Amino acid sequence: MESSQAVYEALKSAGIDFVVSLPCVNLGKIMEMVDCDSDIIHVPVTREEEGFGICAGAFMGGKNPAILMQNSGLGNSVNVLASLFKLYNFPILMIMSHRGTVGEFMSAQVPMGKATPRVLDALEIAYFHPKIPEEALKIIPEAWILAKTASAPLGILLDINFW
Length: 163
What we know:
47% of the residues lie in helices and 19% in strands.
């Protein structure tokens, strides 16, 4: 199965009906699929903090939110994750293109690629790391259930080799 299709189908299966996205070449096809789906509200943004704030409001309005972003934006998101999502127990599914991993062609992505799991650990945010599309099909819906049950953010890291 094609990786973007698997992630999109997994989001649908999870009941995600509100998606915020930031530009990312790896996530581009998923964004197109979400944008064409009348059952999902799609809000493209330019800053991660803005996206998380919008998702918090969507959750309070009864939506099941996810954010599509590069892991490089996780650094921009530390404060909003700690002081809004963790403090007020809001769930969100963070689908992150995990740049800077084995096979990365852009050396500037490597430091944050290495730091990403440690940043999530420091924030006490659970995450999953599916390696193949079929694994993502199963993990993403289960991850949303865990996020809702725990009332907490949850990350999905998708390495370069996933794509």
